[in-house]
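Hi L.,

You mentioned the student needs an example of a multi-chain input paired with its predicted structure. This one should do, with 959 residues in total across all chains.
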Amino acid sequence: MTLFARATLSLVLGILSTFIAPATPWFPTPLSPRTANYQIEVSLDTASSTLRGEETLVWKNPSDDVIQEVQFHLYLNAFRNASSTHLQESNAMWARSMHDGDWGFIDISSIRTEDGDELLPRMEFIHPDDDNDFDRTVFRLPLHRTVGPRQTLILRLSFTARLPRLVRRTGQDRGFFMVAQWFPKIGVYEPAGMRGAPVGRWNCHQFHANTEFYADFGVYDVTITTPSSLVVGATGTREEVHVHPDGTTRLRYHAEDVHDFAWTASPHFQEVSDRWRHVAIRALMQPQHFAQAARHLAAAKATLEYLDRSVGPFPYPTLTIVDWPHGVTADGGMEYPTLFTTVSMWGLPEGIRFPELATVHELTHDYFHGIIANNEFEEAWLDEGFTQYFETRIMDDSYGGPCSVIDVGGLRAGDLALTRSPYASFPNPRLAAPATPGWKFPAGQYGVFTYNKPTVVLATLERLVGRATMDSVMRTYFRRWAFRHPSGRDFVAVASEVVHNIHGTRYGRDLSWFFEQTIYGNGVCDYEISSLQVRREPAAPGDTSQQRLFRSTIVASRLGEVMLPVVLRIRFNDGSETMEEWDGRDPALELRYLKPVPAVEAAVDPDGVLVMDVNRNNNSKTLAPARTVIWKYTFKVLFWLQNLYATIAGIG
Amino acid sequence: MNAQAPLRNALRTGLRRAIRSRGMILLLYAVSFLSALPLALGFRSAALSVVGSSRAPEVLLQGFDLTVIGDFLKSGGAAVTGVMGTVFPATILFLLLSAVLSGGVYASLRSTTENWTAASFLSACGRYAGRLLRLLCLSLLMYLAVAALLLIAGGAIAHSLTKDAVGEDTVILAQLAVGGVAACALYFLSLCIDYARVDIVLRDRRSIVQAVREGARFLLRRPLSGSAPPVVGLFLLALAAVAYLILEDILPAGTPGSIVLVVLLQQLFMLVRALLKVLVSGIIVAYYEYPHAANVYVPAWDRPPAD
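Structure written out for the whole complex:
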């Protein structure tokens, strides 16, 4: 049987099966507006890494506007050639290593209305973000008939896609297939008022090197036909499996209230099943990583438990964990609704928790972006920053703060410290604001300003207002914005409301002063004890008492632009302490004490509330510095040098 | 003659001569200590200038802290890295010094040497310095050439074994295997150089090329027993390292007293390294000196010659 005949047969059977056996609904009532609903039949030809698909899109106009055109993403065209915007913006080695046979693409051969009218000739590629005529990742389609307010549009698309070599989380490599962003995907129409839109508009960005995705929620019914030798994992629940005599298998998947559908296939997967409450968890492991399945499952269950408590319930009945094969883990993990990829490494000791970290991070994304579906193009910090923030909490609380990620051979590193470090040590932490749209970050700087800085900002806010208040903020945010598209300002409004309800005006009328500086501005936070001086006061004329007084003068400085309230602790020679509060508005604060005992130590932010302070080593001064630690490390250096010399001499 | 007899004799003799050379062991330890001390003190000065009177680094007494180390490196990393940047030239200098000292070491461990004295040691260092430094240059070139060949060949072999590998365990094991073979080859080369050094001192060889040839020939005739002495040394060093790590782990971190104990332990370990160096050198010298069967012609008759 020819490939074409096989594909057609599978297609017909797939269509028939959807009529014969409707999927089991997940939810009695929809959780989301279900704006973009897809029914897709696709077959995978493993020899050519080609997908052939038939897609039925049912799109509901979410606005009161009359829609005259629709816009679509064709993400796979980012890998069509080196002229795409994605490749042009990529400085990575992988971009230079793509050769003939590595490229991927997606082509649409037909776009029909429910009446059968062919709209393909109207299709026009656009590039809303730059002037790259060669970029084919977005197209507009003027409609034959307008779509009125709240009305429905049905389109049937036929497409062919080829998966690229697996370099950017989608593609194929040595028999492993990761099929993501693989179908024509309608953009998001934002009605006036949504995310600050002044008028209704299509929000459909090109696929950049530094951006991810944005789509509407809906129901997905996807039928996948692959060779029977492949083990398949996908978004959603598997409703049906049909094994054909021609050596192919057809699987039907169903997912509700999700905004994406990804799937994977490999002949090498080994499956491990587990459960957390109502969630059936399935881990698809590479054979050499099978021993690490337990680590991933434990991390996944710990994450679900933690987020259920701190944010909100995980609504979906299924979760699939996909283990990358070796050689393609350069991009780390990636998240899709109810499915995520994670990282393992053969022989990795228990004390190095990169597998757990990847699983915690990607599963948390199912909340921040999977359920609270921010626009990742324009405000990546809203999901990356939130996800990274909760990742640090989950890892440090679950595995021990100072050693949650690395705890081997005396080397320790906690997740929050590891997250803070790239930002604090960044050569120019003022380079950009986290709220910058993704494609506008200078090359190589996206990560620090969307992951690391927002994390320390949120950690600082947590320590300012208290964890209980922070969790209340997150739970309210989740309750209000789940299955919707919030903007950063929407989150700020929720945080301001909750903090005000709990603490009154202690933190101002709202929290805009905090977020304007830390998220929408590019200032840094750096407080310092600039000087600590003590002078013995001379006796006053005629004073015959033996008591002498000491004048202690402490100067604290704000070296950065960010003004945050801080606490100072002054310790005196008799062991007594004084705490002072400073609003941080002035560039410096001078404190003077006249006491029978001198001050011996001063510290600003002694409890480490300001996680985003880029230099904690200048936060204290003491008149009696202990040099023990310097000697300890001096002798360590001596010892290492002696061993280096002895080893080199032995070889030479 | 039993092939192992010379080796057993060499082990005993080497140990005896090492014990006899206690002064030399202390001298070698003192050289390594004094060579490393200036850099360590430079690091201390740089660290003090950065830390100032901050209390933040005190948390390092309890163990590694990424926040403190990271902030320290950012605010004062230039000073520290400036000091540590001198490690490479300092190591080169020590390599040259070590080459010169090896002449004194091997000369002191000869059978003809009765008691070790610093004067005789230094005299021997001077006598053989030129030849041993030339041998060092030649050996570095040989290492580079062999390493380059091994890298190219090993890389090609590893790539062909693993290019279609699905799992990294295959890749890692293949790389370890190829790396292991390459390490053995380089180790063999280093043994040849060791024996060449011994040959220069014991035979007063003028030609370093001849010395390398003799060293290689000696090793090729008895590859297993010839490579045994350094293996013994490595085994004993591994034991010492494990003991050090266990003891260091037991000691509580953070108090001045425990830091002093750790420093004493560290320096004891370096003394043990100096002892092992002298021991292995003594065994090699004794083994090289030994009248091996292959070197001695013994005529044989069916019956005694007629009177």
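You could point out the following to them. The two ends of chain B are 29 Å apart (CA to CA). Chain B has nine helices and no strands.

Best wishes,
N.
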